[in-house]
């Protein structure tokens, strides 16, 4: 079967690439061996968390690009970063939308009792930005181990409680189970009544980010009516319910627009002919199927997603065999100190690309004419330290698809 574009990888960069192409009326195939990292790692949209507090994102990105021209943002450019974020937001109209506060990073509470900077927040988390100045009642659940109520209460100088609700197990509760229960009116009736009994003078209620998968704003509105207080979600440890919401929204909209998704299928081989990719083989034992396209986008992530692999000697890209920019020896992968201010060189390893997002070799020559590379597998960034992962994925996925379709 032939397509206009095949996207390999179903993380945020692959989904953004597919969105960009289907909105141009292209026939798109998306292949992923799993569900990407959205359902595990993403709660908000980090763009550049290293900016000084209250710094405007646009000005900060512009300066960052000037200072780091080899960074993925340098390859994308400020205009396309803004276009890409706008395109992402178009999939999330109100009431459940992603917002920036005053065009700057916001400090939001986490389930570990810390504050972290991020740029775009889902509507259900926005009120958490005012936690420190207004105070809140933090509510956890007995049996749910991934939400540290007392630590948060101590850190944020507010009050915390752990509820034991009738009919709920007292051990082994997961975020997914809580999200499903939240969508049941009877559960919300009980929960709302229990929270209302515990409120003293708090006007804000902080809950783990589990307010349902399908209609979190409806769940929040109902609980606010029952408690008489404003609610906000607090990001928690994986799995990420807000990340699942993003993935599910993309999946539904892409299918609606005619894209073909092959989830749980690994691309076992890329069929190369000279400087072009002629097709891919997708393995679903015992069956192996072949697919071809005019253009391809590789967005398989870093080590967690299997886009990059490391052994005792080197880091490799397993599908196309692309060269990986990396330290010359394993001895240079890490700094002497784990918490070094300079970061570890291994985190800046990845695939080198030209201005059209095509992969390059060590001499700077284009390797594959009809393949683009996007996402965190690109070289010259440390998205964990920069707090830029989602921003890199969104902007490079969007731009790689634009480049592929224009040329």
Q: Mind describing the biggest β-sheet?
A: 7 strands, mixed
Which radius of gyration do the C-alpha atoms yield? 22 Å
Question: Helices and strands, in N-to-C order?
Answer: EHEHHHHEEEEHEHEHHEHEHEEEEEEEHH
Class from secondary-structure proportions: alpha/beta
* Uncertain runs: none
Indicate the overall shape.
globular
What is the H level of CATH, i.e. the homologous superfamily of the largest domain? FAD/NAD(P)-binding domain
3D structure, described in words:
- It is a single chain.
- The protein contains 13 helices and 17 strands.
- The protein is globular, with a radius of gyration of 22 Å.
- The two termini are 22 Å apart.
- The chain has two domains: 2-95 and 244-406, FAD/NAD(P)-binding domain (3-Layer(bba) Sandwich), CATH 3.50.50; 111-235, Rossmann fold, CATH 3.40.50.
- Strands 1, 2, 11, 12, 13, 14 and 17 form a seven-stranded mixed beta sheet that branches.
- With 407 residues, it is α/β, with parallel strands linked by helices.
- It has helices spanning 12-22, 38-41, 57-67, 72-76, 78-89, 131-134, 149-156, 175-182, 185-198, 216-227, 241-256, 383-386, 389-406; strands spanning 2-8, 28-32, 98-99, 106-109, 115-118, 121-122, 137-141, 159-163, 204-208, 230-234, 260-263, 266-273, 276-284, 287-298, 309-310, 315-316, 371-373.
- Helix 10 (216-227) links the parallel strand 9 (204-208) and strand 10 (230-234).
